[in-house]
Amino acid sequence: MTVSMAPIAVIAAEDGPDPLLPHTSELIVGLVAFALLFFFLRAKVYPIFERTYAERAAAIQGGAQKAEEAQAEANRLLEEYRAQLADARSEAARIREDAKQQGAAIIAQAREDAEAEAKRVAARAEAQLQAEREQVLRELRGEVGSLATTLAGKVVGESLQDDERSRRVVERFLADLETAQASDAAAARDA
Amino acid sequence: MSTRIVAESGFHSPGPADFEFPPLFGEGTFFTKPMLVIVLGTIAVGAFFYFAARRSTLVPGKLQFAGESVYGFVRDGIARDAIGREGIKYVPYLATLFCFIAVLNISGIIPVLQLPATSKIAIPLFLAVISWIIYNYVGIKRQGFGGYFKNMMFPPGVPKAIYPLLAPLEFFSTFIVRPFTLTLRLTFNMFAGHLVLLLTILGGEYLIFEYQGLVGVTAGSVSILFSIVLTFFEAFVQILQAYVFTLLSAIYIGGALTHEH
């Protein structure tokens, strides 16, 4: 060390104090000042800074967490809405399908009903017709009988008073007529 | 020795003599200008931090932000980087160290004061000694007395053949070289910076007012202008040296705490 400081020491000897020699009272003042500063700052300042850092970090973390929670909540709601929307869509489709089926069923039912009604109406009409025809036939037969008897009496010139006989005649005539008709029809059918 | 020649022609060249100050309050009192700088600088740092931390809020005001930035710079930029997670324990010392050195360096370019108190070797010396005590203390406390010396002088992962050479070097480096380099680096950066500023300012002044003439005024003006540029450069060096001293202290502490060098 003595070697390295030699050139400076030369100047120092000529020009002033050796810059390598510590000044005792400066050292003491400096040490005391530094110590006071250190203990003051350590007691009054650094803990406050550290506390503020910690609080700030906590606040930022809390904020981030809150944001995260809000995000999660929003996502959950979105999922829910989507699910609800999908449900509603499938429900609507189902209802539409049902309605279509029901419509088809109603139409089929209505058609069936209408057909049955039509058949029923037709059957009733036929039955009525039959009844009327029979009635007409019956009336006609009576009338034709009396008419023919009257006519035959006039032709014969003798009253065919004997109702029993005249009725038998008429019956026979009508029976002949019917068989002739039937054989005509059979002939026509065979032909 | 060229300054000698100039000195003979009437110019007093700045030298170590400019670092000697008579007592401020007359003969027999001990209080000198460097001490005044120390006291003022200490009060300034203390007041700055006191007002920065007073009424501390989550959303900081300007002053609080400034204080927190300085503290945070040492905390995260120096302690955490150089020491690691454990570094937080040493932040109070390192932050105080950084601010103390920085303000006593900066006092070299503060008008009226214009003396870097750290150019007086006493200041860097006791700071280096404190750092020296701390890093050796934590090293011995952490690794045990034998372990600390063993890990320092015989670091693992080095070929055994090198140990005879390495062991004395490491010992010498850790116990003797480190405190001296810390002290001398800071002291003579400030010393030399102050001398250069004095030389350009006093020299320029001498050239303009004493030497006179076109040459004197021109050269003197250039010298004065150059001193302004140098002042900015000095401001940079002053902060840088405070950072270097603090960072090296932190690295030494970190090195003592871990087994690796």
Provide the helix percentage of chain A: over 70%
Beta fraction of chain A: under 5%
The number of helical segments of chain A is 4
Estimate the mean pLDDT confidence of chain B: 89
Multimeric state of these chains? heterodimer
Question: How would you characterize the largest beta sheet of chain A?
Answer: none
> Shape of chain B, please?
globular
Helix/strand order of chain A, N-terminal first: HHHH
Low-confidence runs of chain A: 1-13
Bulk shape of chain A:
rod-shaped
H/E topology pattern of chain B: HHHHHHHH
Which band does the percent of strand residues of chain B land in? Answer: under 5%
The pair of chains with the biggest contact is: A-B, 38 and 49 residues
Gap between N and C termini of chain A: 160 Å
Membrane topology (chain B): Multi-pass membrane protein
Keywords (chain B): ATP synthesis, Cell membrane, CF(0), Hydrogen ion transport, Hydrolase, Ion transport, Membrane, Transmembrane, Transmembrane helix, Transport
Protein name (chain B): ATP synthase subunit a
GO molecular function (chain B): hydrolase activity; proton-transporting ATP synthase activity, rotational mechanism
Short description:
The complex is a heterodimer of chains A (191) and B (261). Chain A is mostly helical and 191 residues long.
Structure notes:
The complex is a heterodimer of chains A (191) and B (261). By secondary structure, chain A is mostly helical. Chain A has a domain at 22-126. Chain A has helices at 6-15, 24-44, 46-156, 163-190. The longest helix of chain A is centred in the middle third of the chain and has 111 residues, at 46-156. Chain B is mostly helical. Chain B has one domain (2-257). Chain B has helices at 2-8, 33-53, 62-82, 91-106, 122-143, 145-153, 163-211, 213-257. The chains are: A mainly alpha (191), B mainly alpha (261). The A-B interface holds A 8, 11-12, 15-27, 29-31, 33-34, 36-38, 40-42, 44-46, 48-49, 51-53, 55-56, 59 and B 15-20, 30, 32, 34-35, 38-39, 41-42, 45-46, 49-50, 52-53, 56-58, 60, 64, 67-68, 71-72, 91-93, 95-96, 99-100, 117, 119-123, 125-127, 130, 187-188, 191.
